[in-house]
Amino acid sequence: MFKILEDLVTLARERKSSPVVGSYTNKLLEDKSLAKEKVLEEINELIEAVEQDTNKIHEAADVLYHLIMYLERNGIKIEDVMKELSNRRK
User: How do residues 8-57 score in pLDDT, each as one tens digit?
Assistant: First the structure.
């Protein structure tokens, strides 16, 4: 199940090192403002979907995708985030 998240991280890293012209992923990785804007937009859409009890899964998937791209765009490794979460366990 979590392989899909790993695949998204791998995709982001591959696109950073070997960009694909016209790729939406590359647009997010190259444009810091766009990446930030999309994370904020998708989180708001998820909140709205939850409140209206519609399209929650779709919007949650959008949030995860855009968050991973935002993290990679800003040099934040998901491995470091996971380590931080692990350190917080009691």
Answer: 999 999 999 999 999 999 999 999 999 999 999 999 999 999 999 999 99
DSSP state of 20: -
Residue type, 24: Y
How many structural domains comprise the chain? Answer: 1
Write out the residue range of the structural domain in which residue 8 sits.
3-88
Measured in residues, the chain has a length of 90
Instruction: State the CATH number of the domain containing residue 13.
Output: 1.10.287.1080
Q: Is the pLDDT of residue 90 over 80?
A: no
Pick the closest to residue 19 from 71, 58, 72 (CA basis).
72
- Tell me which residue of 87, 50, 68 sits closest to 7, measured CA to CA: 68
Q: Which residues of 70-85 are buried (b: 16+ CB within 10 A; e: fewer)?
A: bbbbeeeebeeeeeee
